[in-house]
Structure formats: C-alpha cells, structure tokens
Amino acid sequence: MNKNDVAEYLRATRSVEGWFFPIDAYLFAAIDEIQGREGITGNLFEIGVHHGKTAIFLARMLRAGEVLGVCDVFEQQDLNRDHSGEGSRELFEKNMRALGGPARVFAKSSHELTVADTTANCRFFHIDGGHRPEDVLADLKTAARALHAAGIVALDDLFDPSWPGVSEGFYRSLAARPDTFTPILIGGNKVLLARDPSRYALEDIASLVDTRAFRFEQKEWLGRSVTTASRLAWVDLDPAGTARLHAPVWPDVIPRIVAKHTEPLVRFIQRVFAASGDFETERPTTLHIGDSPIMISEAGAREIMTAFLYVYVPDTDATFARALREGVTVLEEPLETPYGDRRCMIRDRWGNTWQIATPRRSDDSESSG
C-alpha cells in the first residue's frame, strides 16, 4: 500500500468505530511496501478486531495467494476479561464486505488459537486483544509460532498508561525469550517488532508516508536505536494545531459549486454518484466522489457559481440511468469516445454540467475532450 492508498482508506473508514491512528496506518503501509520490495510474502493475522477498522486495512494489504485470519470473542463477553471493547461480528462482517475483503474468522479466545488457525507462514501479525499480562504473553507466543523468519508483529497499547498490563506482558515475554523479536518502529499507538531487523532498512521511510503530523527520530530503547514517529503537536497542548496536522490529505485543487438550496443538490450528488460526506449548515459541505473532494456552498455571501466537471465512474450507463431518474437535462447520450472513454453528459437543475465517463483504456488514453 502507498500513501494514496492510506489516504483513501482513512476517508473510507471514517464511520467505522475503532482505534487506528493515521500515523500507524502509514507505518503499516510502509512495512507492506518494504515487504513487497524485498519479496517478503505470507499470510496476515489479527487478534482483536472490534468492528474491523484495522482488519479492513490488513485486507487491503493482501497480495495474490495470501490469506487474512482474525480472532475475536465478539459477543462472547464472558471471555473479555478486561472489558477492553465489545466487538460485533455482524458489524465486523458488514464492514469487511463493504470496505475490506475476505477473512477467516475465529470467534474464540486467542488463548485457544492453534498453528492450524494462524498458519506458520505469516508476514504480518497484529495484536490488539486482551490487555492483561497473561493475554499479551500468550498472544506474543502465538505470534512467534505464526510468523516466518522475515515476519513483523505489531503490538497495540504498549505505552498506553490506561493498560499497564500490556507493557508488563511485553517485558515478561522479552525476559523469557529475548531473541524472538526486535523493535524496529514506534508509532502512535503501535510498536512494530521484527524477527529479522536486517530485512527492514528504514532510511527512506519518510518518503513512504505522509509526515505532516509527525517526524521520524531515532530513540534509544532496549539497548538499540529504534525509529520513532514523534508527534509534531499534542492534542491536549495544541488542539487546533493537531487538528490541522491530522486533517485528511487534500489535493491542491478542489472544485467548488455555489448554489441556492444546496441540500437537494448534495442529495442529488450522493444519489447519482454514490458520494460520501454529510450535508453541513454552518460551513461548506464537502463530498467525496471516489477519492476526489468537491465543495458545495450556499449562495449569499458569494454569487451563484456553476461547475463543469468530468467524473470517472465504474459504470457510465448505470450512473446515467440514476441521473435520468433525477430529472436532469441530457446533453449527450452514452457513447464511445475516440480516446477510449464511454461517456455521457448531463446538466442538473442547478445548472452544473457533468461529463460522466468510464475508461475503456487506461495508461495510453489521450486527454479528455
């Protein structure tokens, strides 16, 4: 996964309940890119999925032939001894279908996982399960069985003061098996440990991530220098600055429409283009069509301003049919263009013109006309 993939994931999963800092998403993606570059393949596994926020990300990391496995107690809350979050299998599976992909699900305590469940060929293993020392000890032992020689384990909440049992379990594991894992990365709430740190050259990691909200520093820990993502602002000390730094990735140019009665326009765009985003009354509404934002403002302080937009969609004909049901003016029926797009053109009742297209060819297509 690259930086753009992470930005798209962060937008797509804003409504999915869970705890996965953007910093850590970028670090997971950086490890994935390094593994791809080094030819490191294997399965992925996660302990503790809640509603699937991180599992969705892991599913997007999968390559051909790889399998994602997950373990959670879900509604069996008598097994959730530290009450660290009540997951829902129904919501998890719904979110995975919509945003992630297939996964093998083990609805049981992670203490019961076997090698047959996890496989012994994992390249990435994420631990976000029970927070008691005995849970962490058991989960790290399970990860050690599951990972191959070049694998990575990501451990959640190691430095979180709310869960001191995690650090106790980690240090007890380290004392018992000091040569099993070596820390290579410290993120927002994850620590990444490697079986073989020599496989992970991190000199260029800053080029693989969006570093607006943090910088990389070398910190001494456990007798070695560990690459650490250090925040540039802390929410309790500088809330406004932190919000700016952690804002979604925006392109340099964003189209904007100024219209009267914008709520029906917003609903129109949502219905026709499956746009995401919520109607706003106190500020401009920002919708996303695919990975592209569009701003819509109510006329008043600004005069009415229409737009001419070229929008790529998965299916021109299906989008055109939805637009017809909205009472648009047809300027061009769906047709095949000389440069490869199947395209139509409509005008909505606010006066905006939309060219709607599906590419038939990709990299060698000429510019749109």
CATH class division of the largest domain: Alpha Beta
Looking at CATH, the homologous superfamily of the largest domain is: Vaccinia Virus protein VP39
| Percentage of residues assigned to helices | 25-40%
Mean pLDDT: 89
Sheet with the most strands, sense and barrel status: 9 strands, mixed
Cα-atom Rg, whole angstroms? 24 Å
Q: Structural class of the helices, strands and pairings?
A: alpha/beta
Major sheet: arrangement of strands: 3-2-1-4-5-7-6-9-8
Provide a quick synopsis of the model:
This protein is of the alpha/beta class and 369 residues long.
Which descriptors apply to this entry?
369 residues, alpha/beta, Rossmann fold, 2,3-Dihydroxybiphenyl 1,2-Dioxygenase, domain 1, nine-stranded mixed β-sheet, 29% helix, 26% strand, disordered C terminus
Molecular structure report:
It is a single chain. With 369 residues, the protein is of the alpha/beta class. The chain has two domains: 3-240, Rossmann fold; 256-359, 2,3-Dihydroxybiphenyl 1,2-Dioxygenase, domain 1 (Roll). The protein has helices at 3-12, 22-38, 53-61, 89-99, 115-118, 133-146, 164-176, 239-245, 262-273, 316-325, and strands at residues 43-47, 68-71, 104-106, 122-127, 147-156, 182-186, 190-194, 214-221, 224-231, 256-259, 285-289, 292-298, 308-312, 329-336, 341-347, 353-359. It has a nine-stranded mixed beta sheet, sandwiched between helices. A four-stranded mixed beta sheet has the order 13-16-15-14, covered by helices on one side. Helix 4 (89-99) links the parallel strand 2 and strand 3 (104-106). The longest helix has 17 residues, at 22-38. The protein is elongated, with a radius of gyration of 24 Å. The two termini are 32 Å apart.
